[in-house]
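Marked as duplicate of an earlier ticket. Keeping the data here for the record.
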Amino acid sequence: MTGATRLADLKKSYRLGFHQPESAVFKTPKGLSRDIVSAISHHKDEPEWMHDFRQQSLMIFEQKSLPAWGADLSGIDFNSLHYYLDPSDRRSHTWNDVPAEIRDTYEKIGIPEAERRFLAGVGAQYDSEIIYHDLKKQWEDQGVIFVGMDTALKAYPDLVRRYFGTVIPPSDNKFAALNSAVWSGGSFVYVPAGVQVSIPLQAYFRINAANLGQFERTLILAEEGSSVHYVEGCSAPIYSSDSLHAAVVEIIVKKGARVRYTTIQNWSNNVYNLVTKRMLVEEEGVGEWIDGNLGSKITMKYPSVILNGKGAKGEVLSLAFAGPGQHQDAGGKAIHLAPYTTSTITSKSVSLGGGRSSYRGMVKVAKGAHGSKSFVRCDALLLDQLSRSDTYPVNIINEPDVSLGHEASVSKVGENQLFYLRSRGLSEAQATSLIVNGFIEPIVKELPLEYAVELNRLINLSMENSVG
């Protein structure tokens, strides 16, 4: 199969693979340097402390090596990427004010319809910038803030400076350093004490241009006794060249607060998806990650909870679907720093067509975190002889008075299962889809109904050309 033929086949099977003609009011040249980092900061008219933060982060990025574990990242050419593209000089709160070609993209994806039907607020990022943001008045009146990260830097400088980079510093890893140097867009969410945001906030991240890196930065702060559910989706067109998505998400969950962060990513197969996500959870707080990973060429993502206060709870639900030519290296981490903390990590992976999925996780219990409990379960489903699944758990226990459980399983779609379902009139593809949907049900049931339906539909579409 030629490269052109494979590209054409991918575009047919990936419903979000369309793209609009590229437009930009400002775009950096390919490559990364101190001058380019300064150009991004100056274009955004940022304060001096952020400019300095970016430059220091660039030095850290240059000093750090690519990870020697996980997926093969040797194909990333950092000099072939554009690190910033501003598609419009307008930032809109009214949908009709968004430039027509960008509005058309999001109409196709369904963002306006979703906003009208059931969301508390929506943010839409196109290439490097948030081009549309809206929060329903009932939440604004209670003091909830939901704006683009760049807007927050100007409108709420004290809050941003106090928390930015505190949960994930630039020194954490090479891609966190890269994001810290060239970040653009992303969301800032602030929920005042005691406010319960009862319906989700949503952000959607779209890469439109070729050879583009997208580096959104999201910061969520939930004050004491508050709660919020944030949902993000991701997609990109299919090009013959690769793109890079390296986001950073920092979340602070104060005493008795609750934050749920849901991701349904469906990147095209030419995107390296390398993301760092972490929550700091204080006393009696609850932090939850629900992470659905479809698409991308390579994904390396391990949502983490740092349980920093007595009685804090954390949960990670991770789903990875690896198709032909994909490596999904995903999982979760739980770090117990205080007594009577509880964590649960549940990982589900499906591999078909030679795809590879890996569970990579860690549970760490610090000295003094007595009475802590953690349970890890990772299940893999292989749909053919070509696919592969690996498990890499790490447990570091420095306190004797803890409870830790770990279960893992790898299974294949059995001939008896298929025979039974096909005897009821289902095709092999329909029967396999039914088995897969039952396997991932523990993850899907935690999603809002609309997103559960969409996830099942995306998986069924991904399987159409690989099964039966």
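See parent ticket for discussion. The chain is about 25% helix and 35% strand.
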